[in-house]
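Give me C-alpha cells for this 156-residue protein.
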Amino acid sequence: MHVRRQREDFQNKLVHRIFTDNDVLVLEKLNVSGMLQNHSLAKSISDASWSSFARKAVFKADSLGKHTVFVDPWGTTQFCHRCLRWVPKDLATREHVCPYCGETIPRDQNSALLIKWLGIQSRPPTDSGSSPAEQGPLPSLREMASPNVEAGSPRL
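Here you go.
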C-alpha cells in the first residue's frame, strides 16, 4: 500500500510538472496488456504503471485545457528521426546509427524524437472539448514503410 501511494504521488507530481511547463504531452499508445504477456518483463512493466500514468496525464490535461496526444508505437525504434529512413535493429542494439544520414545517438533518444515529431504532425485539436478518444487515427510511421515491412522485422 505504501509503495502504491508513493508511485501515485510521484506520477501526480510529474504530470503536474509536465503540464506546468508544456501545453502538449505526446505518448505512445502502448499495448500494455499485450506487453504483460512477456513473463520476463511483466513485473517491471506492472511496476512502472504506464497505463495509470497515461490516465493521469489525460485527466490533468483535460482539467487544465492542455492536450495529451497518443501516437502509434509501430516503427518508432526502427526509423531515423533525422532522415525518416528505415534503419532496422534488434532489441539488444542500444545505439541508433543511421547509414543514410550518419546520425548516431542512443536508440531511446532517437525514438523519443520520432514520437515528438509524430505528435507535432498530428496537431492537437484547438477546442478543449476533444478527448484523445476523439483524436481519430493515431499518427503513425506505417505509411512511410514499404508493404513488406512488418513490426519487429529485422530487415526490409
